[in-house]
């Protein structure tokens, strides 16, 4: 395990993947993480070239995306040969590349989220038969031009409702110069919710919060996000958790109940966490983060994770597991009724954590940009 200085961590972040996330604990939360009751180890199960995202696949498999554009399946002997290669269609400039992958609930379709050679965020769909991608069925579902090469977001997940949720950053640069976070007339700085098979190229769920509003995009589920690098749904409750990377001082984790009808405004760029950003005024409908942390320690870019619902580590059940790209320590939050009631430190640090993956058995894997694919196991 490698521990780095704050300065080298920040340089590594800028060079390799950019500002992914930031934060600090608020005053009404526990002030510092405590050693977790769960005792864990990291078991390396494979290595890859810049593994960036993953998803539970057919027949208990785990599929891993490499940033340069390949997708490989994790087996007993590690990662196999690529089952998909779009490396000639994307670029790793800035924070670009293949950034997200997802299966629908029946494993009938596989989706990829990537930036094309022009930097446009693109969601493509493939049919899946007998656990294999059918290349000839590929179609583009959604595109969004990007004004800058950072803050692409790019994570994609299917929610418990069967709809596809898409995370897009605010368009990049710094400080949201185009005001996209609070602008409901753009898809940038948002979480979107679409029905990818309900129309051509997709359908809008009728109960999306801004359907019928002439001043808002119907696809929007929630807004006011800077760079929602990784988000997930609690497989036990259906709650949504978002790791949103901060600008320069605060990293935040946002929470929404499974009962939410959407429409949450997480505040960017008027707010950075719980704090007005550059003299901004807190929106009246601001939904504050469930957790934030500052950059006084080694952290500088939050990596959102999952609520653990596996069986291998009973003491970890119900805890949200997350990390920070610059710090690398794997931490936990206990969240009850939308409030943090406890913080933990699992005592393991694999390095530059860029993503977590939840397998079909609900066990968790950790990906580092340096190449390791590790499973969180009981010690």
Rg (CA only): 19 Å
Class from secondary-structure proportions: mainly beta
DSSP, total strands: 28
Low-confidence stretches: 1-30
The helix content, as a percent range, equals under 10%
- The number of helical segments is 1
The strand order across the widest sheet is 1-25-24-23-22
| Beta content | 35-45%
Distance between the termini: 16 Å
Largest sheet: 5 strands, mixed
Can you give the mean pLDDT?
A: 92
Helix and strand string, N-terminal first? HEEEEEEEEEEEEEEEEEEEEEEEEEEEE
3D shape: globular
What descriptive keywords fit this protein?
disordered N terminus, globular, five-stranded antiparallel beta sheet, 379 residues, 3% helix, mainly beta, 28 strands, five-stranded mixed beta sheet
Characterise this structure.
- By secondary structure, the protein is mostly beta strands.
- The chain has one helix at 6-16, and strands at residues 34-35, 40-47, 51-56, 62-66, 70-75, 78-79, 84-85, 98-103, 109-115, 121-129, 132-144, 156-158, 164-168, 190-194, 220-223, 228-233, 240-244, 250-256, 271-272, 275-276, 291-294, 302-307, 319-324, 331-336, 339-345, 353-358, 364-368, 372-378.
- The protein has a five-stranded mixed beta sheet with strand order 1-25-24-23-22, with no helix packed on it. Strands 3, 4, 5, 6 and 7 form a five-stranded antiparallel beta sheet that branches.
- The longest helix is centred in the first third of the chain and has 11 residues, at 6-16.
- It is globular, with a radius of gyration of 19 Å.
């Amino acid at each position: 395990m490698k521990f780095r200085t704050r300065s080298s961590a920040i340089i590594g972040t800028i060079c390799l993947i950019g500002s992914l996330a930031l934060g600090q604990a608020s005053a009404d939360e526990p002030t510092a993480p405590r050693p977790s009751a769960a005792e864990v180890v990291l078991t390396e199960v494979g290595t890859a070239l810049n593994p960036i995202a993953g998803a539970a696949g057919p027949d208990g498999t785990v599929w891993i995306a490499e940033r340069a554009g390949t997708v490989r399946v994790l087996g007993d002997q590690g990662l196999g040969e690529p089952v998909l290669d779009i490396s000639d269609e994307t670029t790793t400039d800035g924070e670009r590349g293949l950034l997200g992958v997802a299966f629908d609930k029946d494993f009938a379709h596989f989706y990829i989220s990537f930036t094309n050679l022009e930097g446009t965020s693109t969601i493509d769909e493939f049919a899946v038969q007998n656990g294999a991608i059918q290349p000839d069925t590929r179609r583009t579902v959604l595109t969004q031009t990007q004004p800058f090469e950072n803050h692409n977001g790019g994570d994609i997940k299917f929610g418990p409702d069967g709809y596809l949720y898409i995370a897009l950053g605010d368009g990049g640069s710094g400080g949201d110069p185009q005001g996209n976070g609070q602008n409901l007339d753009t898809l940038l700085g948002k979480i979107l919710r679409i029905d990818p098979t309900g129309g051509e190229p997709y359908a809008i769920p009728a109960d999306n919060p801004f359907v019928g509003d002439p001043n808002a995009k119907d696809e929007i589920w929630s807004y006011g996000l800077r760079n929602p690098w990784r988000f997930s749904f609690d497989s036990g409750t259906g709650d949504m958790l978002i790791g949103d990377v901060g600008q320069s001082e605060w990293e935040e984790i946002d929470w929404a109940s499974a009962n939410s009808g959407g429409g949450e405004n997480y505040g960017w760029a008027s707010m950075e966490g719980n704090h007005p950003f550059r003299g901004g005024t807190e929106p009246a409908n601001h939904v504050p983060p469930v957790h934030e942390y500052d950059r006084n320690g080694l952290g500088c870019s939050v990596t959102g994770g999952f609520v653990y619902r596996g069986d291998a580590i009973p003491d970890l059940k119900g805890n949200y597991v997350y990390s920070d790209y610059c710090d690398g320590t794997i931490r936990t939050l206990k969240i009850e009724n939308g409030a943090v009631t406890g913080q933990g430190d699992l005592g393991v640090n694999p390095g530059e954590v860029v993503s977590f993956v939840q397998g079909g058995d609900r066990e968790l894997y950790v990906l580092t940009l340096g190449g390791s694919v590790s499973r969180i196991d009981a010690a």
